[in-house]
Write the structure tokens for this entry.
Amino acid sequence: VQLQASGGGLVQAGDSLRLSCAASGRTGPRYAVGWFCRAQGKEHVFVAGISFSGNSTYYADSVKGRFTISRDNAKNMVYLQMNSLKPEDTAVYYCAARFSASQTVVTGRRYYAYWGQGTQVTVSS
């Protein structure tokens, strides 16, 4: 499966952005999706994940109540609505996929085999 992330940009603290992740290719099997971010000089960090059905979601503590992950399987799209953005949210955001029929969302980067190219989010204070 190929992934394409988009929707990043430069915003001010308190603003909102919606990131999109378009999946193509082998999208027939059930796949879960995670969003990760990587700040400059740091490792990838799990942000949010969603099961193949959309019934299960999981968020990093740092974004709970501010970010919402959702998916539209008919369109092979996954979204990350980011509200109340903070300067510390500044990073490149990646969507990643793993084939899984489980309702459990996993947070480890090593479990996701397919990755998009990333989209930059910059939040100014």
